[in-house]
Amino acid sequence: MRSLFSSISAATIAVAMGVGGLLLIAPAQPASAAGATSDLSVTYFRDQQPNGQYDEGEDLNPGLLYAQDAAGNWYGTGAGDDGTFNFADLPAGEYQVYFQLANPRSTAFNVDGNERMEVVEVPRVTDATWINSRTGERSTFSTVAGERSVTTVTVSSGSDMLQVGVSMISSTAVVFTPGSEEPTYEAASIAFIDGADEIASYESASNGDYLAVTAPGGATQYNFLEAAMGVVVTPVDGYVVESVTATNSGGEALTVTNAGTGVYTIARSDLTSSFDRATFTVTLAEAPTPTPTETATPTETPTETATPTATADPTDPADPTTPTTPGQGTGGNGTGDDDGLASTDGGNGLLIAAVAAAALTLGGAALLLRRRTA
């Protein structure tokens, strides 16, 4: 009995411990959720039609692609039959994906957001996981140390895609002054435009042109990625921009848009390959000499005060005693018949008196002369 009891008790305890153990791990995350995976399909292409997106036939197969998760685990794969790189069953999370440089002078970009990718050094890792792009089978391999372009992608459950392109679109500019066939650096300053970003220029002493470079004072070629690219022209005093033209590497003319404030642009998609070059030719003219405008001195004309006009005296009403018979009037010395010489204003009467006095004087003088003669 004791043996049976002991056996039962031991069995019961074992079951209880087993149940207790299950209860203890019940709150943990289910294995299916903890092991969520996704297939990451990567398209790597040369932007042969420089439009910033993948076009059929542009696939690029430079070798191997590497991916590193947040925990530091490394993965690698190659191109499949369709040209894509397939990382099958990657655990969900954020990854750094590394691309072998197609050309040391090219620039890689993530199509999502047109992100310009930086170049970093990848270490040698001997315990990386190789994923067969065609079958998904896994094995161990070693990464190769060296420089690679890198971008970030988030892998979630299901299937994710990543598109990365490479481009080498570059640009130069030359400046000419009136009547000169030799380019000059002295008559204008030149910068370049990639979308909204202003790019530095480098003066190439070999042929007189300006080259778009990655940093001021440097000589490393800058590669353009935005839809619009161009130049910013700032003439020195005494010059103005007469014209700006542009050609591709084959000498074919490109359409130039005057965007104002000295900015002249072309459409990057008008170029013909991923390594094409746009050359801008800037022709200057002498600035017109401004003619000074003389400001007329205002003439102040004094305002004359008008002389008041004298108001005429009111006309006296006619004297009711004034005779209305022709030939009669009120003279200056009285009233009477003056044989038409009398006047109502008295002025003619004075004249008559003066004439009479003169006559008397002449008469007296004549009489005196006669007596002396006698």
Short description:
This protein has 374 residues and is mostly beta strands.
* CATH domain class name of the domain at 35-167: Mainly Beta
Mean pLDDT: 79
Helix percentage range = 10-25%
| Main β sheet profile | 7 strands, mixed
Poorly predicted runs of 5 or more residues: 1-33, 314-353, 359-374
The assigned CATH architecture of the domain at 35-167 is: Sandwich
Strand order of the largest sheet: 8-11-5-2-3-9-10
Write up this protein.
- The radius of gyration is 57 Å and the shape is elongated.
- Helix content is 15%, strand content 37%.
- The longest helix has 27 residues.
- Among the domains are: 133 residues, Immunoglobulin-like; 117 residues, Immunoglobulin-like, CATH 2.60.40.
- The N terminus and C terminus are likely disordered.
- The protein contains 3 helices and 25 strands.
- The strands form 5 sheets. The protein has a 7-stranded mixed sheet, with no helix packed on it. The protein has a 6-stranded mixed sheet with strand order 16-17-13-23-19-20, with no helix packed on it. Strands 4-1-12-6-7 form a 5-stranded mixed sheet, with no helix packed on it.
- With 374 residues, it is mainly beta.
- It starts with a helix and ends with a helix.
List keywords for this structure.
transmembrane, 7-stranded mixed beta sheet, Immunoglobulin-like, elongated, 6-stranded mixed beta sheet, membrane, signal, disordered N terminus, mainly beta, disordered C terminus
